[in-house]
Design goal:
The chain is an alpha+beta fold. Helix content is about 35%, strand content about 20%.
């Protein structure tokens, strides 16, 4: 009897009490580990989100073309790097007008002065592209997008991608000719599915600034294009 009373003495711990203590300790450790893992997962998600936000965005058409011509981000556009550090882009204000502004970069884009018209403005000493006089067709001719010797294997595809923003494009053809001024040396033809799409492209592209050039866009004779007559013909353009 004395031995049985000794084993049941509540003042002394037994195996069950030890089991409960260890069980509570295990649960506390598991909870701490779960909280640690949750905190670690949140930290990883935040790091991934920050890394994704910091990923460079795909260059737009103008930036890709300028890089092909040797321009590097953070450098000026001039021969000695003295010009602006971002390509000019067109910001539309309505269907037939827009403003020229420096692309997004380290500096804020310039704003037009108060009272200044929002139509496309030529550079000092440079005339704006002439307004088209030919009746609308499904084919556009672009001049002065690039100069002589600047045609590469990507120009056609990149121009077609940009031109497709105005409607369904059937064909883009790039032709370089010799014996003409640099501004007319590279002729880029855009054939659209409809006259409406070609007109939209002309309104936006004619007079557009690109790498220090003023792009000239005009309608081109559909029969000449279909027959492959892409050379410059005085009196026909």
């Amino acid at each position: 009897d004395d031995k049985e009373d000794e084993e049941d003495d509540p003042a002394k711990p037994n195996d069950y009490d030890e089991f409960c203590r260890r069980r509570m300790q295990q649960k506390a450790e598991e909870e701490m580990e779960r909280r640690r893992q949750d905190a670690l997962n949140r930290q990883q998600q935040q790091q991934q989100a920050a890394a994704k936000a910091a990923e460079p965005k795909e260059d737009d058409f103008a930036t890709r073309m300028l890089k092909k011509m040797g321009w590097k981000e953070g450098t000026g556009l001039g021969k000695e790097g003295q010009g602006m550090q971002n390509p000019l882009v067109m910001k539309k204000t309505d269907r037939a007008a827009g403003v020229i502004a420096e692309g997004q970069g380290k500096r804020d884009a310039p704003q037009p002065a108060a009272g200044q018209p929002t139509a496309k403005q030529p550079k000092p000493g440079e005339k704006a592209a002439a307004a088209p006089t030919r009746p609308p067709t499904k084919v556009l001719l672009l001049n002065n997008l690039v100069g002589a010797g600047e045609v590469d294997e990507d120009l056609e595809g990149e121009t077609a991608e940009e031109a497709s923003k105005y409607g369904k494009l059937k064909r883009c053809v790039v032709k370089e000719i010799k014996g003409v001024p640099d501004s007319e040396a590279v002729r880029i033809f855009l054939e659209y599915e409809t006259v409406e799409s070609a007109t939209k492209a002309l309104v936006d592209m004619n007079g557009r600034y690109f790498g220090g050039r003023v792009v000239k866009a005009r309608f081109f004779d559909e029969q000449r294009f279909a027959s492959g007559d892409l050379e410059k013909r005085d009196g026909l353009e």
